[in-house]
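Hi V.,

Quick status before I head out on leave. The structure for the redesign project is tokenized and pasted below; the design run finished overnight.
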């Protein structure tokens, strides 16, 4: 497992995203919509798991691909 951090600096998100994608991981886990959007632009093949208050509004995932879980208000999404 490798860990990358922009140290809370939005201007470093691009560099962090590129570094993570260049190492060809099996999966990327990230916190926040801005970083997820940058990762999504860089790779169509690496699965990305991201936290987001509203992934549809953030532009991470189109509404049609969201599916509600049977119980509760949790959502499963796949960033493609």
């Amino acid at each position: 497992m490798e860990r990358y951090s922009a140290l809370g600096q939005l201007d470093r998100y691009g560099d962090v995203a590129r570094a993570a994608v260049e190492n060809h991981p099996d999966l990327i886990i990230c916190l926040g919509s801005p970083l997820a959007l940058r990762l999504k632009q860089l790779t169509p093949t690496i699965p990305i798991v991201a936290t987001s208050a509203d992934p549809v509004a953030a532009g991470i995932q189109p509404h049609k691909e969201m599916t509600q879980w049977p119980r509760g208000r949790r959502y499963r999404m796949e960033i493609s």
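Above is the designed sequence. Strands lie at 28-31, 48-51, 67-68, 75-76.

G. will cover questions while I'm gone.

Best,
W.
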